[in-house]
């Protein structure tokens, strides 16, 4: 069975779900940010697979943009994490409950 | 045949690394598993003849973002967090939701392949390399988004510096809120 575009889509789906699961279940914010990177990588696999399938390079351009967004998101997210740790002294997402009542 | 072997190897690296990332207790182990996963993704790019993105993935993700993560892991004291529960109380609900969404997507992928007929795989244009194609497209067709992205990166740099810099002053000046 030759490897088709569908195979890549299945890998991408699985990676997306693992990333979503990490975001939803983990308490440590550092690992939540890592799971976001997994989700963005799943999107990139999709874009590259269709870019190859249609022989059009636009998908790869969009993947470059997605990587740029991932860099910006990681930088800002980790900056927020450092500020949060300085103020609250914790990195667990469910202990930061200032808006809860 | 060789194609399939490489595909399954890289897919296994990607998914195995991802599962290890979200299950490890120590954040440093998670980061190392994430590097394995990202290497697998880079291999998948190479199989799809996206050589430029393969290089970008290695240099930017594994060289840049992961170093940033490791820096923050060292800056922030995670020893206390590693001793506590790693998953929150709603983990079973999240698992159920993820499984339902996964079943849904796979069902649509399996059933909908007839409704959206894909053309047969196109051949890449001959005579031009992948990097050359990307550069022509990026600097001719997508020049404006490229410039906008540079603005976004500038905003991200300023934002992360403001977020990470210390707001505590040594003198009597009260700490200002960064809004």
Which features characterize this protein?
heterodimer, A: 101 residues, mainly alpha, Helix Hairpins, 3 helices, 77% helix, B: 179 residues, Four Helix Bundle (Hemerythrin (Met), subunit A), 72% helix
Total of helices of chain B: 7
Which parts of chain A are unreliable, with pLDDT below 50 for 5 consecutive residues or more? none
Radius of gyration of chain A: 17 Å
The percent range for helix content of chain A is over 70%
Q: For this structure, what is the CATH homologous superfamily of one domain in chain B?
A: NADH-ubiquinone/plastoquinone oxidoreductase chain 6, subunit NuoJ
3D shape of chain B: globular
Percent of sequence in beta strands of chain B: under 5%
Give the percentage of residues in beta strands of chain A: under 5%
CATH architecture designation of one domain in chain B: Up-down Bundle
| Helical residue percent band of chain B | over 70%
Largest sheet of chain B: none
Write the element-wise H/E pattern of chain A from the N-terminal end onward.
HHH
Structural class of chain B: mainly alpha
CATH class of chain A: Mainly Alpha
Give the terminus-to-terminus CA distance of chain A.
Answer: 56 Å
Task: Calculate the mean pLDDT score of chain B and round it.
Answer: 85
**Domain tally of chain A:** 1
Biggest sheet layout of chain A:
none
Question: Would you give an account of this structure?
Answer:
The complex is a heterodimer of chains A (101) and B (179). Chain A has one domain: Helix Hairpins (Orthogonal Bundle), CATH 1.10.287.3510. Chain A is 77% helix and 0% strand. Chain A contains three helices and no strands. Chain A is elongated. The mean pLDDT of chain A is 89. Chain B is mainly alpha-helical and 179 residues long. Classes of the chains: A mainly alpha (101), B mainly alpha (179). Chains A and B meet through α1, α2 and α3 of A and α1, α2, α3, α5 and α6 of B.
């Amino acid at each position: 069975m030759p490897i088709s575009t569908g195979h890549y889509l299945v890998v991408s789906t699985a990676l997306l779900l693992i990333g979503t699961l990490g975001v939803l279940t983990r308490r440590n914010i550092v690992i939540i940010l890592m799971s976001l990177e997994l989700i963005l990588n799943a999107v990139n696999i999709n874009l590259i697979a269709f870019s190859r399938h249609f022989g059009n390079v636009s998908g790869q351009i969009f993947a470059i943009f997605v990587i740029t967004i991932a860099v910006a998101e990681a930088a800002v997210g980790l900056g927020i994490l450092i500020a949060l740790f300085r103020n609250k002294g914790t990195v667990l997402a469910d202990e930061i409950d200032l808006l809860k009542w | 045949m060789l194609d399939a072997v490489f595909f399954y190897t890289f897919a296994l690296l990607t998914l195995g690394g991802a599962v290890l990332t979200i299950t490890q207790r120590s954040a440093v182990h998670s980061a190392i598993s994430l590097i394995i996963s990202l290497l697998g993704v880079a291999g998948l790019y190479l199989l799809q003849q996206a050589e430029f993105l393969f290089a970008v993935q290695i240099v930017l993700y594994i060289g840049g973002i992961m170093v940033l993560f490791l820096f923050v892991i060292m800056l922030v004291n995670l020893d206390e967090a590693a001793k506590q529960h790693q998953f929150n109380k709603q983990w079973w609900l999240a698992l159920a939701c993820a499984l339902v969404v996964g079943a849904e997507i796979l069902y649509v992928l399996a059933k909908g392949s007839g409704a959206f007929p894909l053309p047969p795989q196109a051949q890449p244009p001959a005579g031009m390399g992948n990097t050359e194609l990307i550069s022509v497209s990026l600097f001719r067709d997508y020049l404006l988004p490229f410039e906008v992205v540079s603005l976004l990166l500038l905003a991200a740099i300023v934002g992360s510096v403001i977020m990470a810099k210390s707001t505590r002053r040594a003198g009597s000046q009260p700490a200002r809120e960064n809004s």
